[in-house]
Specification:
It comes from Flemingia macrophylla. The protein is of the alpha/beta class. The chain is about 35% helix and about 20% strand.
């Protein structure tokens, strides 16, 4: 990957307490390498069968670029939540993702799948969403309950970071924050104000998901 550490050294990898998300950062030394790096990351983690992934970004342009860049990955199917998506289409996207999360839980917490599940599509599935289109929990939409949340860009406010967690991630999921060198201060601010610990993403990330 076209990545480099933003810290001089990183603490040894530690798993978080059971029932709490684990937060990592993936450092990119230059902005122009960011898209390439996230595509390589998604290509890697999508090799886990039926892994439910959400990628959050801030703008429609970033969403469109992400959709285009990951469209050819072989182990992944993907959908996007656009602001102009019709209500019934939005409901279909959310329901399809819910089915993926159910299958993920069956495969990883409920033993072997039954005969009806055999032969189903085992590709990982990803939803790409901007902050403006996150599930509206107050309006009755459910959290996406993804096992992995990738923050393509780091939100400027801890409230936005927290909203992404609540709307997208299951309680024991993983967060990977894409960080360009100049965003170290922002990363530290979110870490301290939210009382969380962000470690550098371990190279064995596929083994611990």
């Amino acid at each position: 990957m076209a990545i480099d550490s933003v810290y001089a050294s990183s603490p040894p990898f530690q798993t978080g307490p059971s029932g709490h998300p684990r937060h990592f950062y993936l450092a990119v030394d230059r902005l122009q390498f960011k898209m390439q790096t996230v595509v390589e990351l998604v290509d890697l983690v999508a090799r886990r069968p039926c892994l439910p992934i959400v990628v959050c970004c801030s703008t429609r342009d970033e969403l469109d670029s992400l959709c285009s860049s990951i469209s050819a990955l072989p182990f992944l199917s993907s959908s996007a939540l656009y602001s102009d998506l019709a209500g019934d289409e939005r409901a279909l996207v959310l329901e399809k993702f819910r089915q993926v999360t159910v299958r993920w839980n069956q495969m990883n917490h409920g033993g072997a799948p039954n005969d009806d599940e055999a032969g189903k599509d085992e590709r990982s599935h990803m939803i790409i969403v901007t902050d403006a289109c996150l599930p509206l929990l107050a309006s009755g939409e459910l959290s996406l309950n993804a096992h992995l949340l990738i923050n393509y860009d780091l939100p400027a406010k801890k409230e936005t970071y927290g909203r992404r967690l609540v709307a997208c991630l299951t309680a024991d999921g993983f967060v990977i924050n894409m960080v360009v060198g100049g965003e170290v201060v922002m990363l530290k601010s979110i870490e301290e104000s939210s009382n969380i610990v962000m470690q550098e993403m371990p190279m064995q990330i596929l083994d611990i998901l």
